[in-house]
Amino acid sequence: MMMPPLIEKNGSILMGGLSLAELSGEFGTPLFAYDLNTAGEMFHSLSRFITWKPLEIYYAMKSNWNPDLLRYFRSLGSGIDAVSPGDILMAKSAGFNPDQILYTTNNITDEEMDMAMNEGVRFNVGSISRLRKYASRYPGTSICVRFNPDVVAGEHDYLCTGGSLSKFGVLLEDAREVLAITRDAGIRITGLHEHTGSGIAAAESVYQSMKNLLSIAGQFPDLEFIDFGGGFKVPYDPDEIKIDYTEFGRNITAIFEEFCRSYGRRLTLCFEPGKYLTAACGVLIVEVNTIRDNKSRRIVGVNSGLPHLIRPSFYGAYHHIVNLTNPSATPFKYDIVGNICESGDVFARDRMLPEVREGDLLAIQNAGSYCYSMGSIYNLRPLPAEVVIQGNTAKLSTKRLSFAELVLRLSES
Ligand SMILES: Cc1ncc(COP(=O)(O)O)c(C=O)c1O
C-alpha cells in the first residue's frame, strides 16, 4: 500500500510521471525527490477551502528551502515565512521581494535585527525584550507582533509552540505593554501573528487560537493583516483520520469575517504552512544493503539514516515506507534502520512491508518537510542529492557531495 502522490503502474511505482526506481538508477541513492505538481495542488487547495479575500500564504521555508521549490512557490504567488537571516538571503536569491518576506524573529541578536532591516523585509517581533530594542533603534516604522495564543496543540510536545511553557510570542495579557512601547516610539503595528503548533489534529484548537488572538486585536487600530501561522495537519499514516478541510476553511473564514465586521475593516488573512504544502510532495529513496535475522526481529539496514530524515527519532514520527522494487511480494514485519552509529537511528519498527531483499529500494514518504532542511552530516556522511519532478521530467536540484568533496569543504579554512 502506498499514499498519494505515489501510484503503481505496470509494476512500477511512479511519482509525477516518473518511475522512482529509474530515477534512483539515474541519480543514485539516497535521494530526495520532490513532485512540484503535488506541492502546487496543495498550495491552490488553500484558497479553495479558505474563501476569505484577501488571503495571503507565506510558505514556511524552514520546512524545505530547496531552491527549485522556493522558485516554484514564488511563481504561484506565495510569500515567505523566514526565521533567520539565512532564510531571508535564500528567499531573496529565489526571487522573492523583501515585502513578500515576513521575518519571524526568535531570540535574535541586534546584528540579525539590523541585517533584516537592511534587507527591507517585514519584521515580526515575538518578545517584549526584542520589541524594546527594536523600538529604540527603529522608531517611526511599522511592524507585526507575534503573540502566544495560549493554546497548546501539535502532534508532539516539541511541536507545540503555544502555552506558557513556550518560548514563542508575547503573552496576550501583555498587549497593553506592547501598545505603550510602540506608541512612545511612533511605531505602527500593522500585523498580528500567532502560531500554535505543527500537525494540529484538533480543528477546535485552531479556532480557539484565532479567537484568543482576535480577543485582543481590537486594541490595535492600524492593522492591515493577521497571520495565524501554520500547523495544518496532513496524514502521514494511511490509517489516520483525515481533516475535513472544507468545513475547517468555512469555520476559519466565519471567525475572521465576524472579527473584521466588528473591527470595521476588511483585513488580509494570512497563513504560513510548511508541512501542508510540502510534506507529501517528497520521498527519500534509500537502498537496502544489510539484512539481519536477530532472533525474533528482521532488521533491514539502509544507506541513509537519521541525519537525512530525523523525524522518526526526534519526534517518534511515523513515515510510510514503500518497497519500490518488490511491491507485490508477501509482507513480513521489519525494523528499518540507518547507517549511523546511534541505536536511535531507526526509520520504522515492526513495519509490514512486501518481502525486503538486499538491493531493494525503499521510498520513505512524506519526506518533503523537515527532512532535508533538518539534515546534517553527522558521522560525516554527505546529505543526499535532491531532484525535482515536474510531469515527466526530473531535474537535479542539489548535488550530493562525495565523501572527498565533503571533507575538502570542511578542511578549507
Ligand atoms: C512561526 C511558524 N510558522 C509556521 C510554521 C510552519 O508549521 P507547519 O510546517 O506545521 O505548517 C512553523 C513551524 O514550526 C512556525 O514556527
What does this structure look like?
The chain is an alpha/beta fold. It folds into two domains: 7-35 and 281-411, Lyase, Ornithine Decarboxylase, Chain A, domain 1 (Beta Barrel); 50-278, TIM Barrel (Alpha-Beta Barrel). It is 30% helix and 26% strand. The protein contains twelve helices and 21 strands. The strands form three sheets. Strands 4, 14, 15, 16, 17, 18, 19, 20 and 21 form a nine-stranded mixed beta sheet that branches. An eight-stranded parallel beta barrel has the order 5-6-7-8-9-11-12-13, surrounded by four helices. The protein has a three-stranded antiparallel beta sheet with strand order 1-2-3. The chain is globular, with a radius of gyration of 23 Å. The protein binds pyridoxal-5'-phosphate (PLP). The site of pyridoxal-5'-phosphate has 18 residues, from helix 10.
Short description:
The chain is of the alpha/beta class and 413 residues long. 30% of the residues lie in helices and 26% in strands. The protein has twelve helices and 21 strands.
Provide key terms for this protein:
single chain, 413 residues, alpha/beta, Lyase, Ornithine Decarboxylase, Chain A, domain 1, TIM Barrel, 2 domains, nine-stranded mixed beta sheet, eight-stranded parallel beta barrel, 12 helices, 26% strand, globular, binds pyridoxal-5'-phosphate
CATH C-level name of the largest domain: Alpha Beta
- Count of the separate structural domains: 2
Q: Mind describing the biggest β-sheet?
A: 9 strands, mixed
Quaternary class = single chain
Instruction: Determine the CATH superfamily of the largest domain.
Output: Alanine racemase
Morphology call: globular
Mean pLDDT: 95
Share of helix, binned: 25-40%
Low-confidence stretches are none
The total count of strands amounts to 21
Bound molecules: pyridoxal-5'-phosphate
Strand content: 25-35%
- Find the CATH topology of the largest domain: TIM Barrel
Instruction: Please report the number of helical segments.
Output: 12
SSE class: alpha/beta
CA radius of gyration is 23 Å
